[in-house]
Every structure is written in C-alpha cells, then in structure tokens.
Amino acid sequence: MYFQKIAGPVVDRIDIEVLVNRVPYRDLMDKGMYESSERIKERVLGAREVQRKRFGTGLKFNSGMGQKEVQDYCALSDADEIFFENAIKKLNLTARSFFKILKVARTIADLDESLHIGKKHILEAISYKNLYRNYRV
After folding, report:
1. How many domains does the chain have?
2. Is residue 4 part of a domain?
3. Considering the chain, what is the average pLDDT of its residues?
4. Interatomic CA distance for residues 27 and 30, integer angstroms
5. How far apart are CA 84 and CA 82, in angstroms?
C-alpha cells in the first residue's frame, strides 16, 4: 500500500484519512433512501455559517483553531473526556492527532447541528484517522 511509504510525522499532519474500498455494483444500483447532494450542501453551508459566527472576523474554520480555541470550543463532558483520554492512550495517538481529532469532532458536531461535542462525534472523528497504518507488518 502506498500510505506505508509516507513517513508517520507527515501523515500525522493530515486531518482526515479514510481507506476507501471499491463500491460494489449492487450498492451503486441501489435506489435506497440516501441523503441528497443538495441536503449535504445545505448542512455544509450551515456548519460553515456556525463557524463564521463562532470565530467572527478572526478564524474562519475549525481547522484553524489553535490550542486556546480548542480548549474554548471543544470542551467535552466529564464522561466524554474520560472516554477520549482512554482512546488516545489505547490507540497511542500523538498530541497532534489529539488536537486534529477534536477539531474534526467539532466540525462533525457542527454538521450535526449540535452545540456540544458528544461521544458519537469523537468516535466518528477517530474513525477518520487512518489507524491501520499503526499496524504495519
């Protein structure tokens, strides 16, 4: 796999890493109920507006938050903080990954129209870190 040729510190600077498999034919032809592109666009524009209001004239997006902004805007409940701490320890994630996951979780919560980051937002953000690269053979 190509990702194995990229140095860990370089990959660590990437906010979202997702392994994508080919979509099976039947899934492509499935006419099930999916969120439309127009609805996704609306949610993204809504999240951008939330971030614009959050940061005013300074920062524009969650990705630009520094440590102070992360502390201010990515606060977790006590239970979620314990959960996140355990996940960071168990997955042996770096400080850089810690902050990136919180920023992505804040964005996921914004897309979910949630004022607070919850466990489901943290779990989804962690899932976007390409953790299988830590298990190279």
Report:
1. 1
2. no
3. 85
4. 5
5. 5
